[in-house]
Amino acid sequence: MSQTAADRVLNVHPSRGSLLGEEEAAAVIEVLRSDAPLSMGPVREEFEHAFARHVGAAHALTVTSGTVALEFAIRLLDLRAGDEVVVTPQTYHATAQPLLATGATVRFCDVAPDSLNMDPDVLETLVNERTKAVILVHYGGNPADMDRIAAIAAAHGALVVEDCAHALGAEYRGRRPGSLADLSCFSFQASKNITTLGEGGMVCTPSAELARRIDRIRSNAVDGSFTPAVLREAPAALPWMAYSAYAYEEDCTALRGSGTNAALSEVACAVGLVQLGRLPEFVARRRAIAAELDDVCRRFGAVPLTAAAGSVHPYHLYTALVPGEGRRDRVLDALDRTGTPAQLRYHPVHLLPEWRLRGHREGECPVAERLWFGEHLNLPCHPALTDAQVELVCANLGAALSGQDFTAHREKEPSCP
Ligand SMILES: *Cc1c(COP(=O)(O)O)cnc(C)c1O
User: Fold this and answer.
1) 182 near 158, Cβ under 8 Å?
2) DSSP H stretches of helix in 42-193
3) Average of pLDDT values for 1-8?
């Protein structure tokens, strides 16, 4: 493969982690050229069915983002003051943010050092009869210990919400994230494992009742309890109302909240369908890059986070730990000087300002804190990287970990958009 100037630019914009090509463009044009609806049409249904089949979920409902998926999931928990929720601190802050608007008490559960996923041993110490839900992420896509977490939650009558924003393409003991919890939330934002034109999301659930509530909320219908009403006669002056608008078929007996509009467009869903078909190709590429990064890390004394036996890791994030006093920071600095876009995902959530305001403090999750502030390193690992770029990342990583002089590898090119 010949190297172009672009191959030498490592700073590929992080929002272009997904690959879009001719197939996606053709899918968009097909919808535009047809007379089919642009909203709530057959493509959305097809995408939802294909997605449900893929992850093994009974119900899959598209929404406009992963954040909205999590907002809906947390709304469906019907939390009240005095209820408790256990959540992981090592995640993007959208996992926990909707909890700020509830009256629930939030307990952050420390992570396991070999995965950065919620540690079931710690979870055991945090659950009690007030625990209504356990909310976790499959960190980087690497499946959390769901059998143990689900058993602990079930023993306390708590629901499990899995944030699967990283985990499309993962496997856990023969099953897939999206089928491992009461509510599963996916993101199709541009950097995720597949994208629906830059923004999008999905909620999966085994529960017909929860699916019905999500469908109502996303379609601007109120969230309440309903009983079938005796069909009313339409006023004679408005004969077109004689056919059944669902709003008139039922009586509202209890109102839980308002609805909103979170429908995903037909064009976005058409792209989602194509991307879902290409997922194996994307995951294979991510895993091949990860294997190369693993080699370099091991050669120079860094510790890659890998999947447990029985799991498949799709490497939405590639993560290694760099032990040694101050060493991670020196490696970060060296990578930065070569233009290699290393990252630290994510600042422990319980120490973000909004959670400090609620009284959360250092020391609450010692493992998450020690690793993120001292050892944690995320390296570029997505299918938009060329072979030459991967080679360059590996060379710069090897040099950074071995403490060599990095200026020789410094990029000359300006960075991408
Ligand atoms: C991206 C992400 C979200 C939010 O998804 P959006 O589609 O960007 O709103 C939530 N949780 C995690 C872990 C994410 O990575």
Assistant:
1) no
2) 42-55, 66-75, 120-126, 146-155
3) 46
Query: What pLDDT digit, counting tens, does each position of 263-322 carry?
Result: 999 999 999 999 999 999 999 999 999 999 999 999 999 999 999 999 999 999 999 999
62, 186 contact by CB (below 8 A)? no
Distance from residue 72's CA to the centre of ligand 1 (Å): 14
Q: Relative to the CA of 166, which ligand 1 atom is closest?
A: 15
pLDDT at 71 over 90: yes
Question: Which tens digits make up the pLDDT trace of 117-142?
Answer: 999 999 999 999 999 999 999 999 99
Whether 18 has a pLDDT exceeding 50, the answer reads yes
One-letter amino acid for residue 272 of the chain? G
Comparing CA positions, the residue from 8, 17, 4 lying closest to residue 381 is 17
Terminal Cα-to-Cα distance of the chain (whole angstroms): 24
* 319 strand-pairing partners: 378
Q: For a pocket test of ligand 1, which of 62, 67, 202, 203 has the largest count of ligand atoms closer than 8 A to its C-beta?
A: 67
* pTM of this structure: 0.92
State which of 72, 187, 264 you would mutate to test the pocket of ligand 1, scoring each by most atoms of that ligand within 8 A of its C-beta: 187
Do 10 and 340 touch, CB atoms closer than 8 A? yes
The pLDDT value given to residue 250? 77
Host H or E run for residue 23: helix 22-33
Q: How far is CA 107 from CA 29, 79, 115, 125, 219, in A?
A: 48, 14, 20, 11, 32
- Rounded to whole angstroms, the Cα distance separating 178 from 149 reads 15
Q: Which residue has the tokens 């009240």?
A: 80
Q: Cβ(212)–Cβ(206) under 8 Å?
A: no
Task: Give the single-character DSSP code of 118.
Answer: B
**Beta carbon of 71 within 6 Å of any ligand 1 atom:** no
- In short, whether 165's Cβ falls inside 6 Å of ligand 1 is yes
Q: Say if ligand 1 is within 6 A of residue 64 CB.
A: no
Distances (CA, A) of 114 to 124, 141, 320, 398: 18, 14, 10, 22
Q: What is the per-residue pLDDT for 240?
A: 56
* Structure tokens, 76: 């469906």
